[in-house]
Amino acid sequence: MVKRWRGIGGVLAAGLVVGGVAGGKAAPPRVPYATVFTPGTAAEQPFLVKNEGTQVAEGTRRADVGQFWAYSFPVVPGETCLLRLTLPEGVDAPLPGVTVTGADGKPLNASVGKGIGKTVDIAWTVPETSPFGERNTVLLSAKTGIVAIKQVRFLEQQADVNGDGLPDQIARWMTAGLAGSPRPYVYAAPARPYTTTQSGSPLDPTFDLQTDTVLVYNADADIIAGWKTRG
């Protein structure tokens, strides 16, 4: 089932881009790095699970009317997914036909609309009952006109019901087998981020690391004392 929604790209993208929250509150779960690939490259192959007649030329996958292809992505139960398709410059093609299916092959509700610039955004939520690591499949088809795609970008936002910054799925793993319904305590993000690095070498005044802290992995008392002089 697909709902057409113009402008969903800006709304969902804004919801997916999250960061720290000031005032001592926990931050929402960080968004994993996007999965990005160009059609026809080796990077596309792990995700391309079906191709019916489409062709790739100069980094663009093209489907004529009646042709289709499908991508499959591993997902986490309850997370929100955004698949952003970038169109070639100068192409004003109709929206592709889209069918998103879960691990059981049943269709999922998805929203399809024009995104930012020359993009098409497809958004859906993974069912809570979906097995962890199973794949959702996105079938793309040319129904009313030629569809051409030059880049694919897949983003995920894991569920965090209580907003403590720890994804619900991670919390389940951490408390599996424990009695009751415990929830791990999540330390709030500091108002100012801190940086740290590590070194096993003596302090060298000419090498200024510019970090808040240094972890010294060396048992030599003189080396440790040297680093302590930095405060």
How would you briefly describe this protein structure?
The protein has 231 residues and is mainly beta. It has helices at 8-16, 168-175, 221-228; strands at residues 2-4, 35-37, 48-52, 55-57, 60-63, 68-74, 80-86, 97-101, 110-114, 119-125, 135-141, 147-149, 151-157, 196-199, 213-216. A hairpin with a 4-residue loop joins strand 9 (110-114) and strand 10 (119-125).
Can you characterise this structure?
By secondary structure, the protein is mainly β. It contains three helices and 15 strands. The chain has helices at 8-16, 168-175, 221-228, and strands spanning 2-4, 35-37, 48-52, 55-57, 60-63, 68-74, 80-86, 97-101, 110-114, 119-125, 135-141, 147-149, 151-157, 196-199, 213-216. The strands form four sheets. A six-stranded mixed sheet has the order 1-9-10-7-13-2, covered by helices on one side. A four-stranded antiparallel sheet has the order 3-6-11-8, with no helix packed on it. A three-stranded antiparallel sheet has the order 4-5-12, with no helix packed on it. β4 and β5 (60-63) form a beta hairpin. The longest helix is centred in the N-terminal third of the chain and has 9 residues, at 8-16. It is extended. The protein starts with a strand and ends with a helix.
